[in-house]
Write a structure and sequence with these properties.
The chain has 354 residues and is of the alpha+beta class. 30% of the residues lie in helices and 23% in strands. The strands form 3 sheets. Strands 8, 9, 10, 11, 12 and 13 form a 6-stranded antiparallel beta sheet that branches. Strands 3-2-1-4 form a 4-stranded parallel beta sheet. A 3-stranded antiparallel beta sheet has the order 6-5-7, with helices on one face. The structure holds adenosine monophosphate.
Length: 354
């Protein structure tokens, strides 16, 4: 990984910071937010300059850098440094560049890149979250022990691709591709909430942690194709007889709010996950999301943590019912830019960039 000394050296040579990200995922929000906070922006386009920004002028980056591939981007550190760029990672950025290249990418990057090692490996993620006292869906070690409905995920498959539900061992055998490594979890029955947090290690006041502050910026739920609307065609069981199986590919997001009496629990979970991250790897800085299911016992089970801006925050470019109570009009993208502005003013950029 790029050392803190090297990042400090690079920052020493910078003029005004330019906020850069890959043109995808939550880039509209990141550019819009950066502009609101007075930063210049750079859109990194893979293949060709995308036309879709012309439809959204308030979120169009000031400049574009076009590269042929993520591999080329990984090798474009010098060019980006010459432009005084700070990279804001999002899901697609890290996923397509690859964790290894992302860790070596010699461009100051918002957040703590050390989180990757704990997030990318499902086993390490479980160690981290469990140590934080967060309840996760139970892991079923051997398929032969399947004694209830389960959710099966293939390693490295993102966004629900390839995942499937099996109600018993026989169904598991029918559906599994044993050629790929997989994990089996109990299927948690309940309602999903994707909780958007922001952890500021340099924040003061507010919901205070041992160091810095935690903010809760909003909630969303994902639209997943085809599971979410397949009921229109019939019950899952009868559809299976026609060879139609549920899939979990994210196609969009819907806004939601949480029952208010659950908010303290949501905040406490966020708090414990951050505190444990400070202990384990120096802290998960900036936006993160706990992907949860709330059971009818009003109990949270966390099936995943995403340690950067999630696309569900795109719902709230002009603020959410919760971020409005912190500051009207504050999106997660804008919050990232605000953090950089604050850190610059206080000479604390090295606390939030790696
Ligand atoms: P993931 O691959 O972890 O992002 O999960 C994709 C989708 O599968 C989620 O949005 C949920 O709808 C569902 N899901 C994941 N894990 C579980 C689980 N243990 N129980 C029930 N549903 C789950």
């Amino acid at each position: 990984m790029v050392t803190a000394e090297r990042i400090a050296e690079i920052l020493d040579g910078y003029d005004d910071l330019v906020i850069a990200t890959v043109c995808s995922h939550s880039s509209l929000q990141i550019f819009h937010g950066a502009r609101m906070e007075g930063f210049k922006t750079l859109g990194i386009a893979i293949g060709a300059r995308p036309k879709y920004y012309d439809a959204f002028p308030a979120a169009r980056p000031d400049d574009f850098m076009v590269v042929d591939s993520y591999e080329e981007l990984a090798g474009s550190g010098d060019e980006l440094k010459d432009m005084s760029a700070v990279a804001v990672p999002h899901g697609s950025f890290v996923e397509y560049m690859g964790a290894e290249a992302f860790l070596k990418f010699e461009v100051p990057t918002f957040g703590n890149r050390r989180v990757i090692e704990w997030e990318a490996d499902r086993e390490k993620q479980r160690v981290w979250l469990s140590a934080a006292g967060v309840d996760m869906p139970e892991k079923i070690e051997r398929p032969e022990s399947i004694d209830r409905p389960v959710f099966v995920k293939y390693h490295g498959a993102k966004g629900g691709r390839g995942s499937f539900i099996a109600k018993n061992y026989d169904e598991f055998l029918q559906l599994v591709d044993k050629g790929q490594p997989y994990t089996i979890q109990e299927y948690v029955i309940g309602t999903r909430y994707y909780i958007h947090f922001f952890y500021s290690p340099i924040g003061e006041g507010g919901y205070a942690l041992s160091r810095g502050t935690l903010e809760l910026l909003g909630f969303d739920r994902r639209d997943e194709s085809n599971i979410d609307e397949m009921y229109k065609l019939g019950a899952q069981e009868s559809l299976k007889r026609l060879g139609i199986y549920p899939t979990f590919i994210v196609t969009g997001n819907v806004p939601t709010v949480l029952r208010e009496s659950l908010l303290p629990m949501a905040l406490e979970m966020g708090e414990r996950v951050v505190e444990k991250s400070l202990e384990l790897f120096g802290g998960m800085i900036g936006p993160f999301c706990l992907e949860t299911i709330v059971t009818d016992q009003l109990h949270f089970k966390v099936f995943e943590v995403s340690s950067r801006i999630v696309a569900g925050t795109n719902l709230y470019i002009s603020g959410s019912p919760y971020s409005d109570l912190l500051e009207p009009g504050m999106s997660t993208g804008r919050r990232i830019a605000r953090e950089m502005k604050l850190a610059m003013k206080r000479g604390q950029l090295l606390d939030i960039l790696t």
